[in-house]
Fold each of these.
Amino acid sequence: MADLHRKLERSAIRFMLAIIAVASIGGLVEIAPLFTIGSTVEAAPDMRVYTPLEVAGRNIYMREGCYACHSQMIRSLRDEVERYGPYSLAVESKYDHPMLWGSKRTGPDLARIGEKYSDAWQVAHLNNPRDVVPQSIMPAYRWLLRTPLKTDDLGRHLAALRTVGVPYTDEMVANAPIDAYGQSAPDDDKARGVTERYGKATHVRAFDGNPGELTEMDALVAYLQILGGLTDAARKTDQTALGE
Ligand code: HEC
């Protein structure tokens, strides 16, 4: 064995080929079984796409770098499931381009933050975290409440997501700015189109507490409130393997 090694070591090319052969064993063991199962992504027929307002909120989440402190991925470990809820499924990130799983948790995981708190709590917290969590080290995002949301480019955002596989219809793309307004103005005529296009369960509320004005706060809170709520698939999976 030592002899073989000595010989291999002296020829760079042969040594490289040997490294590739050995290293690929791990890859084969991990990847090959995936070809034998029907699908690596669970089926979730009830899954809906993000509304234009939620897409705008997601863009703000990326712009502000929330992913640098928050993950959106609950691992299948007992402590995570007990703290955050059912572990994340691949299908739940199906329409996330790019995915926002994150790799650091200065703050808690947000994969199932949707509806954990009221809109008013989220608004107060984003405006100044210390108003509701005195010991918080999260930065304040005060400008969200006073910055009007830019909606004229939302149709193009939806169209771009469609090119990478998110099933937005022509009607959704064409009505994106109107739907963004309608989702945060429950008493306006424009609200009806939102539930027609995105389903009855869609939250239609004045997220920032002010239905007359569409702000970046509306968008970000609409997005936070749907996290973990696009499909029920995770709540229906059998998590008994964790000893639940
Ligand atoms: C510097 C790190 C940091 C950044 C950046 C950050 N957060 Fe936080 N976040 C925290 C910490 C720490 C907590 C826990 C204390 C608290 O609740 O304020 C927290 C808590 C939260 C909670 C409550 C979670 C729960 O389960 O109680 C939400 C929601 C949240 N952050 C959203 C956001 C959003 C949205 C952004 C971007 C606009 C953001 N955070 C940016 C650190 C951060």
Amino acid sequence: MNAPSSMTPEAKAFRCTGCGACCSEFWINVSDADVRRICADTGLGVMEVVEFASPATVEGDVEEEGWVPFGPDPADSGLMTLKTDPETSTCRFLQDSLCTIYESRPMACRLYPWDRDYPTYDSSRIGLEILTEECPYENDGDEGVDALDELFDQDDREGDAYEARIETWRRLGAPDDPVLFLRFLRFPLNGSVKATEDDAITSDAGRGIPTAAS
Ligand code: SF4
Ligand code: SF4
């Protein structure tokens, strides 16, 4: 558990207006824990949920977290992301500007546009990190720092666990087959996926655009 955070005033007053711009401008990278939650919640198979983006497509740095080696050439690395709709190039779960997997949306979605930094050794701070110019947020929100802290802690735990699995995959020789990687992560290619107790979201904080049914 990290030191309790403070929040910048802008971050505390942030309110998402639900425009959906951040669901249509980025590749949403996911961990295996994110994918288990989505598959368990929707009944979809892993092949219907994720795809792998190449460094050339997303102009990514393969040295950063989340990149999976597929063979010896770093250019063949892949970033596990939510599938995009080929017609609209938006997240496949965005419909009529609403999130259809609100309850199981990934950590990247819950935590956008916040970021936690460490201005001193024993203090942390949550601030806004707006990555899209089209984020028409309002300043009348009331975000709870404790709830967001919990989410950041869980995101750290799940990110570290996923990185450790990627490292094992690398040590095993990093075959150039993303489907094999999904099997290595223990996802059945045909069949349902169960979330584990550890996958449970411990906080209902975080941004999102629920559908009316959520
Ligand atoms: S909030 Fe929902 S619709 Fe938007 S990118 Fe995330 S999963 Fe997709
Ligand atoms: S975070 Fe910003 S860009 Fe994303 S849906 Fe909310 S207002 Fe729109």
Amino acid sequence: MAFTLLPAIGRDFIGRKSEVDRLVSLILKPTDLLYEEKKGIALLGKRNVGKTSVLKKIINLVEKEGIFCLYVSLDDLTDNSQQNFVKRVVILILNTYKSKLGFEFNVEDLFNTPMGMLDSLLKNLKRGLSEELIINLKLLLTFDREKKVDMNSVFIAMFSLFDMLAKETKTKLLLVIDEFCGLRNLKDGVDSNLLFEKFKSAVLKYENTLLLVADSNKPACEELLLRQGSIFEGFFHVEDISSFSKEHIQKTLEKNSGKKIPENALELILDFTGGIPFYVQFIGRMLGRHGFVSANSFDQKIVSEVIQDFLEQEANILFREQMNRLSNKEKLILVCMIEQDLNTPSSISKEINYSQTNVRRFLSIMEEKELVVNTKRGVFEIQDNVFKLWVKNLINKEVKN
Ligand SMILES: Nc1ncnc2c1ncn2[C@@H]1O[C@H](COP(=O)(O)OP(=O)(O)OP(=O)(O)O)[C@@H](O)[C@H]1O
Ligand SMILES: [Mg+2]
């Protein structure tokens, strides 16, 4: 059994062939489309749909073609400060280029190396590196020793370092930023709009570096890259990563378990998961524990039991915190949407006797929290079907008690 809740890599990666092929060929042979009109690629899709898995798959394939890749995620930062972020990225990029630069030391130690020694280390790097690159590097390795840091110039140095390294080592670099919009949540320093502006103007000058980003936060993406007048309007070639089809779900389950899945059981899983691979993997793991592997016959009944069990137990752990982060009014709206099957501010406002403007305002906040999604003008849907079913299950239990 190889069901996993982590990004799917290697043999665990199922499907997405056409998306991956298209993106890889776009990266390997950037067409005029990418170089003259669009400056980067953006993978957009719901939470847990498999964006990171696609990024990792692409990295794996293009690295084999000699492209240097830098993967940075805004998701797993323990320290959300801009300083910490820059330090992490500098460590990653220097590790990526370590052999090309002739670095023989531990990159992390450079941040604590005494100034004089650092100077001579940098001077002794591979010959032919420009003075400008060395100055940038020095700034990036020493900025946090200063009492007052000008994060603006630190970011400018970092943004230009990527392409300088690529150019001066005669390599191509794929700069991958996962949860891209999360850059705006970094604390203590430059205002986020200014940060994005600076980044954009740096990327526009890139010659050997291609930008690939991913994000799932729809309102953030709208505001930053999709909406007319947004900073990155028209900047990215956008690729939507969609939910799994029935065939993909079948393949994931059958490949990882070695068993055939009957059609009715498959339908049930499709219905429940909404094609979100994360839940397919989760249910797969649970089916394993329910004797699915040893049983010869595997039917809809076992799947129903597993789904119910999931809603009663695992889902509590997954969703309880998300629920607790909602205000009372947001909870009220959520329950109303689910219990009464409502999806417009006007119908919700009538039901809970609250002004339409306020309902709309709360829905926007809930959208920002990636709980609801604005599908059509004035229509909001609960984004995650499993979360919706979990809340439904809670409501039913409350009614029974
Ligand atoms: N192509 C795939 N084949 C099999 N499983 C997949 C695939 N893509 C994603 N998954 C599974 O779905 C889950 C979520 O994957 P991943 O982390 O790549 O999604 P994501 O969209 O980046 O999520 P998030 O929104 O949390 O960043 C994981 O359990 C992963 O194993
Ligand atoms: Mg991800």
Amino acid sequence: MSYLSQVKASLLTETIYEIDESKKVLLDVNKKLLQQKDIIEHQVRLLNEKNKELRAFSHSVSHDLQGPIRRIEGFTKILLEDYKDKLDENAVEHLWRIYNAAEDMAEMIRAILRLGKVSFHQLALQEVNLSELAARIIQQLRQDEPDRKVEAAIKPDMRVKGDKTLLEMMLQNLLANAWKFTSKVSPAVIEFGEKIIDDKRTFYVKDNGVGFNAQQTNKLFKEFSRLHGKEEFAGTGIGLAIAYRIIIRHGGEIWAEGSKNQGAVFYFQLHRNIESFLQLNDTIARSTNA
Ligand SMILES: Nc1ncnc2c1ncn2[C@@H]1O[C@H](COP(=O)(O)OP(=O)(O)OP(=O)(O)O)[C@@H](O)[C@H]1O
Ligand SMILES: [Mg+2]
């Protein structure tokens, strides 16, 4: 064999050896990836199971609690109405406290059930005109409180793809908040518009109301969390938790900016490609038998 042929042969042997080594490394990586996929799938399945259990638990607890609470409300009312003359002032006051607490609890249970409905709701995608929905909601709010002076500016024809029922519910909560928390200013100004933030289409509901302490922004979207007292503004503290879940189900984000007595702005984005986002969710759910 010539010297050149010998060099070529040894180079070839070396290359084959390197290919073999790379193949081994690739096989090893592949094996590890498959193992990790198995672990992740197993964990998703466990999480899904836990989720189902939790949902069923909170649903049945909420349902089962409704009966006893209604009885407490009912019998307290009977005592207040039929035995009023036999009770002293102190006892009547205590009974009213029991009655109001039972009412609060009943409202909280209804709120938990509403929250559950948002999670269970099967998303149906369609084109949704957010401007039209908002105009209708504002019209309704005006009808309920015709004496309020509220200037509402809605950018026309803001269309998105999403679930109409849920998006309407989300807007209802944001606009009702803007309406409620501007009740001490006149005229109240509410704006619903859109702009681009971080390259993404971003909608916002802005008001000139009482605003909130900026340091407490992280509490806004938690269930039953309220930054204003009940005596000042009525409410359960569930509206924004519902809005949050709706936006998460649309693969988007929601956040707020505000400061005390300087009004508030609530921003939200939906997923850029909602169809592929839902398809991906669906594939993951099916592959893990959710
Ligand atoms: N536009 C706003 N301006 C100022 N504070 C707001 C505004 N929107 C929400 N908040 C604050 O966030 C809290 C939570 O809002 P959320 O809508 O969840 O509850 P709520 O309006 O108090 O009650 P609910 O919506 O259940 O009737 C409110 O209690 C309020 O403190
Ligand atoms: Mg609200």
